[in-house]
């Protein structure tokens, strides 16, 4: 974990966001830094919009109570008629439809 945290810090100091998805998951699940995770998930969302990115965006947005990002993730999934068990389980926990 220390090695990964060091690599993440190095990437972020160089403004290298190629691994923002992985860094967001690491920040949330290992470092338990919800704010950093949400920032990284949002940064990742700017360039990648795959189902797993919507899951990570929703998970981090829920952690920091960011209704705007929650809505973005839900709108993305709904507009594409995507079905993802991970997303559905997370979406059920929020008050917003999706």
Describe what you observe in this structure.
The chain has 98 residues and is mainly alpha-helical. Helix content is 71%, strand content 0%. It has 6 helices and no strands. The chain has helices spanning 2-13, 20-29, 34-47, 51-63, 67-79, 85-92. The longest helix has 14 residues, at 34-47.
The dominant shape is globular
Question: How many separate helices?
Answer: 6
CA-based gyration radius = 13 Å
How much helicity do the residues have?
over 70%
Low-pLDDT stretches are none
* Structure class: mainly alpha
Mind describing the biggest β-sheet?
A: none
Please state the average pLDDT score: 92
Helix/strand order, N-terminal first: HHHHHH
Q: What's the N-to-C terminus distance?
A: 34 Å
Fraction in beta strands: under 5%
Q: How many individual β-strands?
A: 0
Summary tags:
6 helices; single chain; 98 residues; mainly alpha
How would you summarize what this structure contains?
This protein is mainly alpha-helical and 98 residues long. Helix content is 71%, strand content 0%.
Layout of SSEs?
Elements: H1 2-13, H2 20-29, H3 34-47, H4 51-63, H5 67-79, H6 85-92
């Amino acid at each position: 974990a220390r090695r990964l945290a060091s690599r993440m810090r190095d990437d972020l100091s160089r403004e290298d966001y190629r691994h923002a998805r992985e860094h967001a998951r690491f920040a949330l699940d290992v470092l338990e830094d919800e704010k950093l995770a949400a920032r990284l998930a949002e940064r990742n969302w700017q360039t990648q919009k795959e189902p797993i990115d919507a899951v990570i965006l929703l998970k981090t947005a829920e952690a920091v109570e960011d209704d705007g990002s929650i809505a973005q993730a839900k709108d993305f999934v709904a507009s594409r008629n995507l079905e993802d068990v991970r997303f559905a389980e997370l979406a059920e926990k929020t008050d917003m439809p999706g």
